[in-house]
Amino acid sequence: MRLLLVEDEEDAARMISKGLRQESYAVDVAEDGVSAVEKALSHLYDLLILDVRLPRKDGWTVCHEVRAAGLQAPILMLTASGSTDDRIKGLDLGADDYLVKPFEIGEFLARVRALLRRKPEIHNPRIVIDTLEIDTRSRTVSRAGQFVRLTAKEYSLLECLARDADTLLGREVISERVWNETYDPFSNLIEEYIKRVRKKIDIEGEKRLIHARRGEGYILTAKDF
């Protein structure tokens, strides 16, 4: 599952992201309210974790704008204020839950799991691109009806590319989402895993789906590239 964390405090963002990724969630981070709205409305997220105090546009405004735009993913708001008025305000604006800082990471993760369990199904858990099928619930893959056996990391890489099909993803983005680390330009780790995944999903008679653009990144698409 893919989550958007909106948090401008670097240490807090790092701690929360680490906890989420250890639970196998894919995490994108936005550091201000403007970029939060842009990301939330341009990608398919299963959950938004939204801090109230943000530069450029506060969390209240972000919550209101994404709900007004039709976003249905659950929203967990984070704030340093535990006042009843603030809780009511957040819930009235469309938030699903409210957690006061500082909090224990265990409680935070429990809240995340609870929201994901009760969220409405807003998209098909199956991703289909040409004859490639990915079931994000069972984390299984098939190509032209044939089961494709992938390691956990190979699957994470493929799902990362598939969730943004037809979009070129830079190595920095892939490294952060799949390996939870800053991209090392001297490492060929991503290239090696791309080769492994290609070898498994590219079968005779079927279209090649993963393409590279030198110096920019990779794209998974059934369109001519």
Structure notes:
With 225 residues, the chain is an alpha/beta fold. It folds into two domains: 2-118, Response regulator (Rossmann fold, 3-Layer(aba) Sandwich), CATH 3.40.50; 126-220, Arc Repressor Mutant, subunit A (Orthogonal Bundle), CATH 1.10.10.10. It contains eight helices and eleven strands. The chain has helices spanning 10-22, 33-42, 59-68, 84-93, 105-118, 152-163, 171-179, 189-201; strands spanning 2-6, 26-30, 47-51, 75-79, 97-100, 126-129, 132-135, 140-143, 146-148, 210-213, 217-220. The strands form three sheets. It has a five-stranded parallel β-sheet, with helices on both faces. A four-stranded antiparallel β-sheet has the order 6-7-8-9, covered by helices on one side. Strands 10-11 form a two-stranded antiparallel ribbon. β3, α3 (59-68) and β4 form a beta-alpha-beta unit. α2 runs parallel beside α3, α6 (152-163) packs across α7 and α6 packs across α8. The longest helix has 14 residues, at 105-118. The protein is elongated, with a radius of gyration of 19 Å.
